[in-house]
Every structure is written in C-alpha cells, then in structure tokens.
Amino acid sequence: MTDNTEFPPGRSSKFRWSGRRTATRPLVLVLALGVSACSVGPHLKLTKTVAPAHYGAHTPNAPLSAVTMQPALSWTARQNAAWWQMFHAPQLDTLIAEGFQHSPTLAAAKHALTAANEYAVAQEGSLFPSIGLGGGLQRNTSIRSVIGGRVVVPGKPFTLASAEGQISYSVDAFGLQTDLIRNSKARAAVSAAELDDARIFLAGNVASAAISFAGDRAELTLRRRIVQAESKILTVMNSDYKFGAITDESVEQQKAVLAASKAEIPLLTSARDDARHLLDYLVGRMPDQPVPQINLSDLVPPATVPVVIPSVLIEHRPDIVAAMAGVKAASAAVDASTAAMYPNFNINAAFGAGSAVALFNPASEIFSLASSFAAPLFEGGKLSADKRASYALWQQATSQYRNTVLNAFRQVADRLRTLQGDEAALDQRRAAAQFASSALRLARERYDAGAITYQTLLNAELLAQTDQVSALSARIDCYQDIVTLFVAMGDAAPTASAPPLSTADTTKAASKS
Asked: Are the C-beta atoms of 482 and 71 separated by less than 8 Å?
C-alpha cells in the first residue's frame, strides 16, 4: 500500500506503512507493542487569524448622535449574555426567560449537546479493557454410547454446562482511538457552540418580535388618528362642496386619500398579530395563551452600546467557535485516517469452566491467552482515498472557518454603520415631527383668531400625525438595529462586575488585536 497523499510542507506523517519499506516492518511492530498511543499525525493546525484593529472606519467611544437618544459606541473586552436587560423592560426580560425555558428549538440544541457529550464518553471507553461474562447450558445426545460393553445407538443424552469470563484489550499503538476521541470531543464542542448560538438568536428574535409587536401597536394608534383626521377633512369638504366652494374633484381626491389610510389599518393589525404569534412560537406558547403586553414606551434604549474588540469577537462569537471546533474535528479525522493505515493489536484472555459432568470440577477449568494483530496490505486504494478525502474535508473546514470570521466582521461593521444611519434618520424625523407640532400649535392659534379655515387646521393636524408616524418608524428601526448589533457581536454587554474598558485599556486591547 503506497501513501501518495499530499500535505503542506512540514505536515507529513511521522511514520509510513508502505510496501517499499518491508525491512522496517518488524521494527515498527516491536515499537507498536511497547508504545501506547503513538499518534502518527499529521496533526494539521489552523493558521491563527489576525483580527483587525477596528470595524471599518468606526472608532471606540464615538457618539452616534447628539439629540434625545444618543447611545455611544464603547469598546469592551467583557461580555454578558443578558444584553436585553439594557432596554430596562421587565416584560421583555420575562419573555426571553420563558423562551430559554420552553423553546423547543433550544431544547433540541440541548439534547444534541447531551448526545454529543455522551458519544465522546463512549468513544473514550475504547481506551479501556473490555470485560465480559458468558455461559450457557446445552442439551445434547451422543451419536453412540458404550454401556456394559454394548454399543447403544443413539447414544445417551447429556448436558454441557459452561461459564467463562472474557477480557479483551485493543492496544492503541498508533493513536487511532485517541484521534477518534479527539474528533468526538471536537464535535461535542461544535454542539456546545451551536447551543450558545441558538440562545443568542432566540434572545434576538424574541426582542425583535417584541419591538415589532409594540411598534405595530403604537403605529396602529397613530394611523387610526390619521383616519379620524382625514374623515373630518372629508366632512368639511363635503360641506364646502354643497355651498359650491370646491369642486367635486377635490372631494373625490380626499375620498381616495381616506380609503388609502383606512387600508393601512388591517395591514397593521395583521402585522401586529403576526408579531404576537411569532412571540408565542419563540417562547413555546400556543396562540390562545396571553403574553405580556409590551408598549414601546416601556423600552428604553441603552445610553451606551458596547462593541467588543475584534479579537474578542473571534474568541467568543459562537459560530466562529463552532467553526474552529469543526476544524479541530476535521484535523482529528485526518489523523484517524492516517492511523488506520497502520497495524492494530489486540490482546484477549478467557478463564472459565466447561463440563458435561461437574462444572466446578478443577478438571473442567478453561484458560486461554492470545494476542493478534492485523495490518492492511492491499485495500484497493481505499485507505489512501479515505486519507485524501479527510484532508480535503479539513481544507473545507478551514475555508468555512475563514468565511465565518469574515462574515462576522462584515455583519458587525454593517450593523454599526446602519445604526449610525438610523440615528441620523431618527434625528431628522424627530425634528420634522417637532416642526409639524409647532406648526399645528400656530395653526390652532390662528384658527381661534379666525385667520384660517377649519380645513387648514385639519391639514396641519394631519401633517403632524404623519410626521409622528415617520418618527415612530425611525425609532423602531433604531431599536431593531441595536438588537441586531448585539446578536452580531454574540453577546457583548458590560455588567457591574465587568465594566467597559477605559480609553487606555481599549487602546491597548485594540493594539493587541
């Protein structure tokens, strides 16, 4: 069997089992019997990823805005899974806690982790001797018996009893079992990281659905006020039309505007109910069960948005951790496929008794001790192909790891930039709403003084309410993007026991990354 698998320079196997090295086989066999778990490699390692100093053009401690809502970016090396508590909404905390307890998706991830850990423990059992006990009773009839010098056919029936203890041990001479254990432990680490990832996404989805639910309720209230205002405008226009003050075309246009505004109500109602149903699903409830009523006013945005430094993102974001564990599992699989090309050694012992007369008679004792080995000589290229395939899978895992890292930095950079854009839009829409409110106040004063018509006052009121809807939408977008940023960072919120880094610590940590 010739091993033609290509590895990177310096990654070749320590030993080779090849038909061209027949003279070295006896020596290898002797070493294998005397050495336990001599792993033959190639022990592939992943090149360490160098984290950038920052995300795009973002700098630490940079304020996002200078108006009412002004969260600032504060870089930190600390993490806290309960980032949603920064919104100071007990109803949201209750929903997420319930989701952690009852979500079937999270429960499935927990069971997958339990199974992976048990498989790893089961794999470790291969390093220990296997001890068993066997026995049986067998009723037989001899072909012929001699009784008193006379041959009797068929012979006399007799009972054969046996009892035996067995011990077998597979010597892990070339590290095959050790490599399989490493592989199973790495896969358990993948399951653990996937469970953390499931928790983060569950919290993010619950928070996002709760914000959507609260936002739709608030917008529904404003939209209904707009419909009332437009209905009043239509009533005034109908009166003006009767007196010939306006044309029927103006009335029809207002009817169309009112109908369009009314059409928004069922759409928003459906969106609100969809968000409610999504909350039910995420927390493991049926749709007919009540959920905490969350108002948008109950959600207070964090004054400071902590952003993990890039090196911390690589070390703690669950999908990156899972990808790294996947690389380790693939590396162990390469080592196992290499070790499978070498001989395996077994030791077996048995002690017991077997007799047709007296089972515990010393003359019926049975004892055996044997050792064996099996070495692949010709497998039709199967072992070499398996090794090349496992190496290709390791290369795939490393590529997936790098892709996961790049995608993580892209997501965080996108969320930071989007959050800055949201803040700028929120500033402008709030300013527009304030100007519209001031215009409505002036219009009311002028209407009271008889300077403008009632329709003009209603138009000012409608404009103010429309701008309030725009400001509300911008506020919801900002809240949603704050949640998305936390999810992208994979849990990154400071706690009282682990405060954010100071400016000096941030600079030092960023330079190390």
From this structure: yes
61 phi, psi to nearest 5 deg: 60, 35
Question: In what order do the strands lie in the sheet containing 72-76?
Answer: 62-63, 72-76, 304-308
Query: Which of these, 169, 173, 176, lies nearest to 346 by C-alpha position?
Result: 169
| The pLDDT of residue 19 is above 60 | no
Segment holding 96, helix H or strand E: helix 90-102
The number of C-alpha atoms within 13 Å of 111 and in the hemisphere containing its C-beta is 6
Residue 68, pLDDT > 50, answer no
CB-based burial label for 359 (10 Å; 0-12, 13-18, 19+): middle
Backbone angles phi, psi at 226, to 5 degrees: -65, -40
SS3 state of residue 474 = helix
What H or E segment, with its residue span, contains residue 421? helix 382-448
Residue 305 DSSP symbol? E
pLDDT 10s digits, 363-387: 667 778 888 888 888 888 889 898 9
Q: How many other C-beta atoms are found inside a 10 Å radius of the C-beta of residue 415?
A: 22
Residue labelled with tokens 């380790």: 328
Note the pLDDT tens digit of each residue in 275-316. 999 999 998 888 877 777 788 888 888 887 878 888 888 888
| H helix or E strand, kind and range, residue 323 | helix 318-339
CA separation, residue 404 to residues 171, 193, 399, 400 (Å): 39, 13, 9, 6
Amino acid at 278: L
Kindly report the backbone phi and psi dihedral angles of residue 39, in degrees, each rounded to the nearest multiple of 5, phi listed first.
Answer: -65, 130
**pLDDT, average across residues 455-480:** 86
Q: What type of residue is 233?
A: I
Please identify which residue in the block is written with the tokens 């009314």.
262
Mean pLDDT, the chain, integer: 79
Round to the nearest angstrom and report the end-to-end CA distance of the chain: 47
Report the distance separating Cα 201 and Cα 429, nearest Å: 30
Q: Which two tokens stand for residue 338?
A: 């290499």
Distance CA 437, CA 467 (A): 9
Helices 382-448 and 318-339: crossing angle in degrees, nearest 10, is 170
Residue 490 CA to chain centroid, in angstroms?
Answer: 10
Is the Cα dihedral 20, 24, 26, 30 positive or negative?
A: negative
